[in-house]
Design brief:
The chain has 5 helices and 8 strands.
Length: 188
């Protein structure tokens, strides 16, 4: 599959490139990024260097599609659709650099990726899943804001650096209206 560039009001989403290595390395030193995502811990510069060609290979295979979230010259994070196996579903994953958080960028990027993911001219998906380590409230709020429906708790559902973590799971169907839904695990 050829890589695709997506544009939002404030960002361009495009394939990570070698010039992103320093910012990727720096962002992935963040304790929350290492706790709540699948990035290696400790995260070395070699990890960032290996990430670039791996993303290109995954795009070519059409299985894991990762975009760099760029706001001007700054790397705001990465976002992707993963586990695309031809079944009509995929999983949304991301990390946001510490200096880009709490500015609504992830909701903006998610919207572009979700729109592309459901589009017949994009991935043509019918379902997109979101999963997060229990306690990742910021991610849960973003998913809720985009209309993901909370579907439950997966006991020991995610494998991480500390072993297995319980996970929240939510789903969004291409036919859903995307209005925010109540989530029993969020009190606000």
């Amino acid at each position: 599959m050829e890589s695709v560039t997506l544009k939002t009001v404030r960002m361009e989403l495009s394939v990570p490139r070698e010039s992103d290595i320093d910012e990727i390395f720096e962002a992935c030193q963040d304790a929350a990024t290492q706790r709540y995502t699948t990035v290696p811990s400790p995260y070395t510069r070699v990890h960032a260097e290996e990430f670039i060609p791996r993303v290109a290979a995954h795009w070519a295979e059409g299985v894991h599609l990762t975009w760099a979230m760029r706001q001007g010259d700054a790397l705001a994070g990465t976002i992707g659709l993963y586990r695309l196996d031809g079944s009509g579903s995929g999983e949304l994953g991301y990390w946001v650099s510490p200096w880009s958080r709490r500015r609504g960028l992830i909701v903006e990027a998610w919207k572009a990726v979700i729109d592309w993911g459901f589009s017949p001219d994009g991935a043509g998906l019918e379902r997109i899943e979101w999963r997060a380590v229990v306690g990742n409230v910021g991610s849960a709020r973003a998913a809720r804001a985009l209309g993901f429906r909370y579907e439950g708790l997966l006991r020991a559902g995610l494998s991480g650096k500390q072993g297995r973590d319980d996970a929240w799971i939510a789903g969004l169907l291409s036919t859903d209206d995307r209005a925010p839904q109540p989530w029993p695990v969020l009190t606000d």
